[in-house]
Design brief:
Layout: E1 20-30, H1 35-46, E2 54-65, E3 70-74, H2 81-89, E4 96-101, E5 105-108, H3 121-131, H4 136-150, H5 165-179, E6 183-187, H6 195-210, E7 214-218, H7 222-228, E8 231-236, E9 239-245, H8 246-259, E10 277-283, E11 293-295, E12 300-307, E13 315-322, E14 327-332, E15 341-344, E16 347-354, E17 362-371, E18 378-389
Parallel strand pairs: 3-7, 3-8, 5-6, 6-7, 11-18
Antiparallel strand pairs: 1-2, 1-4, 8-9, 10-12, 12-16, 13-14, 13-17, 15-16, 17-18
Helix pairs in contact: 3-4, 3-5, 4-5
Bound molecules: adenosine-5'-triphosphate.
GO molecular function, one term: ABC-type transporter activity
Keywords: ATP-binding, Nucleotide-binding, Transport
Organism: Nitrosococcus halophilus (strain Nc4)
C-alpha cells in the first residue's frame, strides 16, 4: 500500500539481542464460576499452584521483537492480545514459559493506573518517574517538559482525585513521552484524551517511530497495523496462528473473516460533529442512477466531499470490494501524497479517475472513508455499489496486463 509515514523506515538495522523474547508462554486463569472454584483457586494460589483447573488464555506463544521493530498483535475479541501485552509489560506473570524483556518499557495500557489519588499531579510524576527508573536529575530535567505536554494548567498541583479521567490520561501519557522508552506498548492507537490531545500524541508517536522506536501494538484496525507495523502476529483463542510480515498476516486475518461471513451491516454509532465525515460520494457521470454502470476498459471517475471539523485537510481512503466481499484494492490520499481541495470552510473535495478500468465485469462496492489528516484514524464511511459491464471471458476480478511469447527457445 505504499510507504508508511509512521514507522516508515522499514529497513532499520537490528541488533542481535531482542528487546522482547517470549518463549512458549502460556497463561491459565482459574475457572471461577462457583464458590467451590473460587476456593480451589485460592487454595492453588496459597500453594503456589497458579492456574489449577483453569482455562488457557495464552498457549505456547513464542516471539521476539528486536530494537527498531514494530509488531502488531491482531485477533478477535477475547483472543488474548491484551494478556500478551500485559506479560511484556510485566503486569501479568506467565503460568508456563519465559518472558524476557530488556530496556525501558513505556506501556500505554492503563494510563495513570499507578497514580496515587491523594498526591498532586506533580508529586505523582515524581513518584511514578522514579518507579519507572528515572534518576532524580533526569526527572528534574524533564519535569517541565512533561507538565507542558500534559497541559492541564494549575491542576498539576491539585490532588489527582480532583482530576477528570482525561486529565489523568494526559498526565500518564506525558510521563511516557519523557521516559523515552526503548519499547512502547499500546492497546489500539492512542485512543486517549480529547481530539487535540490525540493529535499531539500522534505527532509524538510519529517522532518516536521515526527515530527508530520499537512498538508493540494491539489493534483491531488492519489499516493501523499495516501502516504502523512491519510484522504482525495473529492470536486466535490464545494460540498464535500466524506470524510474519504485517501485510501478509493482516491479509490472512481478513480472509478468515470473509470466510466467517461476518458481513452483517454493523450498526453505525452516530457521528459527533468533531468527526471527519464523508458528506458526498459520486460515481461516474450518471449520479442519479441507482446502480452506476461502468464499462470495462473505460475511464471511471469518482468524486466526493469530506467534512473536516478543525478545517485541516482530511485524508480520504478509497477501497473497492467485490460483491462477494473480496477486497480488490485500497489506497489513501495521504499514501499518494494528494491534498484534498478546500471548497469552503471545513469542506474539502476530491476527484479521481481510474483510467481504462481493469476490473472484470461484475458487481462491486466502492467505499470512501474519512480519516484524520495524519491518515491514522478512520471516522466515517460511505459505500456505493456499481456494476462493471463488458464482454470478457477472463477469470478473476481484474485484468492484468500480459503478453504471450513464442514457444520454447
Ligand atoms: N484477570 C483475568 N481473569 C480471568 N480471565 C481473564 C482475565 N483477564 C482476561 N481474561 C480472559 O482472557 C481472555 C483473553 O482476554 P484479553 O483481554 O487478552 O483478550 P483480547 O484479545 O485483548 O480481547 P479484546 O480484543 O476484546 O480486547 C478472555 O476470555 C478474558 O475474559
Amino acid at each position: 500500500m505504499g510507504t508508511a509515514k509512521i514507522g516508515g523506515d522499514k529497513n532499520k538495522i537490528m541488533t542481535t539481542e531482542p528487546l522482547v523474547r517470549l518463549d512458549q508462554v502460556s497463561k491459565i486463569y482459574p475457572k471461577l464460576t462457583s464458590s467451590q472454584d473460587r476456593l480451589r483457586a485460592l487454595w492453588g494460589v496459597l500453594k503456589g499452584q497458579e492456574g489449577y483447573s483453569g482455562y488457557p488464555v495464552l498457549q505456547d506463544i513464542s516471539l521476539e521483537v528486536y530494537r527498531g521493530e514494530t509488531l502488531g498483535i491482531i485477533g478477535e475479541n477475547g483472543a488474548g492480545k491484551s494478556t500478551l501485552l500485559k506479560h511484556v509489560a510485566g503486569v501479568v506473570k506467565p503460568s508456563a514459559g519465559k518472558v524476557q524483556v530488556s530496556g525501558r518499557i513505556g506501556a500505554l495500557l492503563e494510563l495513570g493506573a499507578g497514580f496515587h489519588p491523594e498526591y498532586t499531579g506533580r508529586e505523582n510524576l515524581q513518584l511514578s518517574g522514579a518507579l519507572m527508573g528515572m534518576s532524580d536529575a533526569e526527572l528534574l530535567d524533564k519535569l517541565g517538559g512533561i507538565i507542558e505536554f500534559a497541559d492541564i494548567g494549575s491542576y498539576i498541583d491539585e490532588p489527582i482525585k480532583h482530576y477528570s479521567s482525561g486529565m489523568v490520561v494526559r498526565l500518564g501519557f506525558a510521563l511516557i513521552t519523557a521516559l523515552q522508552p526503548d519499547l512502547l506498548i499500546t492497546d489500539e492507537v492512542l485512543a486517549v484524551g480529547d481530539e487535540s490531545f490525540q493529535k499531539k500524541c500522534i505527532r509524538w508517536m510519529e517522532g518516536y517511530l521515526g527515530n527508530g522506536g520499537t512498538l508493540l501494538l494491539c489493534s483491531h484496525s488492519m489499516f493501523h497495523v499495516q501502516k504502523l507495523c512491519q510484522k504482525a502476529c495473529w492470536i486466535k483463542e490464545g494460540r498464535m496462528v500466524s506470524y510474519g510480515e504485517a501485510f501478509q498476516v493482516t491479509q490472512e486475518y481478513l480472509a478468515y473473516h470473509e470466510q466467517k461471513s461476518r458481513q452483517e451491516a454493523q450498526p453505525q454509532a452516530p457521528l459527533s460533529s468533531a468527526a471527519y465525515q464523508v458528506k458526498a460520494l459520486w460515481l461516474g457521470d450518471n449520479e442519479n442512477n441507482e446502480l452506476p454502470l461502468v464499462s470495462m476498459g473505460q475511464d471511471f471517475k469518482i468524486s466526493g466531499e469530506l467534512y473536516s471539523p478543525d478545517d485541516r485537510v482530511p485524508t480520504v481512503a478509497v477501497g473497492i470490494i467485490r460483491a462477494n466481499g473480496t477486497e480488490v484494492y485500497g489506497f489513501t490520499s495521504d499514501i499518494d501524497g494528494f491534498a484534498l481541495n478546500r471548497r469552503e470552510s471545513k469542506r474539502f473535495v476530491f476527484a479521481l479517475t481510474f483510467p481504462r478500468l481493469s476490473l472484470l465485469p461484475g458487481r462491486y462496492k466502492l467505499c470512501a472513508h474519512a480519516m484524520d489528516p495524519e491518515g491514522i484514524r478512520l471516522f466515517d464511511v460511505v459505500e456505493r455499489e456499481f456494476q462493471v459491464v463488458g464482454r470478457s471471458r477472463e477469470l478473476g476480478v481484474c485484468r492484468l496486463e500480459h503478453q504471450w511469447h513464442g514457444g520454447l527457445p
